[in-house]
Amino acid sequence: MAMHHGTHPGGGWLPPGRPGPGVVPLRPLGTSDILGGALAALRRYGGPLCGALLLGQLMAGLLVTAAAGAATLASLSPRSGSRVFVWTLFPAAGLFLLFTCALATALIAALLRPAVLGRPVTAPGLLLAALPRTPAVLGAQLLALLLAAGPLAVLLALGVPPLAVLPLTPVALWLGVLSSLAPTAAGYERLGPVAALRRSAHLVRGAWWRALAVTAPAVVFTGAAGYGLLLWFGLPGALSALVLLPAFPQLPAGLLYVDRRIRREHLAEAFAADA
Q1: Which of 7-16, 18-27, 218-227 has the lowest mean pLDDT?
Q2: What is the mean pLDDT of the chain?
Q3: How far from the centroid of its chain's Cα atoms is residue 246's Cα?
Q4: Which of 113, 183, 250, 263 could form a disulfide with 10 if both were Cys (CB 3.0 to 4.6 A apart)?
Q5: CB 247 within 8 A of CB 52
Q6: Which residues contact 103 (CB under 8 A, 6 or more apart)?
Q7: Do residues 27 and 18 touch, judged by C-beta distance below 8 A?
Q8: What is the rounded radius of gyration, in angstroms, for the C-alpha atoms of the chain?
Q9: What confidence tens digit (pLDDT) does each residue in 171-180 have?
Q10: HEC states along the chain?
Q11: Sign of the C-alpha dihedral, residues 93, 97, 103, 107?
């Protein structure tokens, strides 16, 4: 039987409606494809993904505890030892949270190709693939945050009334969405933070509202789920949220990144050849 082919909006020829071997079809993705693919990826790869994130957090937690303990031992006065421990622990915990968010994004970037191609992964394999890219991902996340929220934070710190800063909020939102794919690009394409920001702006340009429609529900759901776990289960719920939730908002963003490259750069054809 002859197979009729058609063009997709990014160019190239693919069978119409061709199902993918993995969590999304190998064609330009709709919003439902992206959100459904994120849930399918969680069902199929949630175990290795959470296992890799937990292993990375365990290593980082050991380093945080060792650093705080070393600072306490190095304190000159036994009376001030506990204070040194506390004041060291707070910034170390902040670094731990930053590392967790960056590692989760790097893990999603490492998972994208296996998830789209339907290939198996292991937690150690994901972690080994993600760790070398975590510093660049963290740099991209911090630059994106600085770009979007930095001017507002500076104005508020200088004493400008919040109502006077409020008109700048749409600009911050626009910049935040424009740079939303930078961490994924840093992890997947092995880019530096500045190059990843430029890459994100290139991919999001012309699809800003669609990027917002994909990323905003994931962020809202994650925040609501984290609050619910904290409210219902207290500290154990908060710890569970720290393990289970950081990767979820990055899944739709990662699949949106795949979609933008399918539409602009024929990535579906490369995936089909690999499959």
Answers
A1: 7-16
A2: 84
A3: 7
A4: 263
A5: no
A6: 53, 56, 57, 60, 130, 131, 134, 137, 246
A7: yes
A8: 21
A9: 999 999 999 9
A10: CCCCCEECCCCCEECCCCCCCCCCCCCCCCHHHHHHHHHHHHHHHHHHHHHHHHHHHHHHHHHHHHHHHHHHHHCCCHHHHHHHHHHHHHHHHHHHHHHHHHHHHHHHHHHHHHHHHCCCCCHHHHHHHHHHHHHHHHHHHHHHHHHHHHHHHHHHHCCCCHHHHHHHHHHHHHHHHHCCCHHHHHHHCCCCHHHHHHHHHHHHCCCHHHHHHHHHHHHHHHHHHHHHHHHHHHHHHHHHHHHHCCCCCHHHHHHHHHHHHHHHHCHHHHHHHHC
A11: positive
Q: Which tokens hold the place of 133?
A: 């890219």
Nearest to 250 by CA among 270, 229, 221, 271: 221
Task: Give pTM, 2 decimals.
Answer: 0.83
Report residue 245 as tokens. Answer: 């939730």
User: pLDDT tens digits, residue range 69-124?
Assistant: 676 666 655 555 556 666 777 777 788 888 988 999 999 999 999 999 999 999 99
Q: Which two tokens stand for residue 24?
A: 């999304």
Greatest distance between any 2 Cα atoms in the chain: 84
Residue 37 to residue 252: CA distance in whole angstroms: 8
Encoded tokens for 246: 């950081």
In whole angstroms, what is the distance from residue 37 CA to residue 39 CA?
5
Whether the CB-CB separation of 140 and 186 falls below 8 Å is answered with: yes
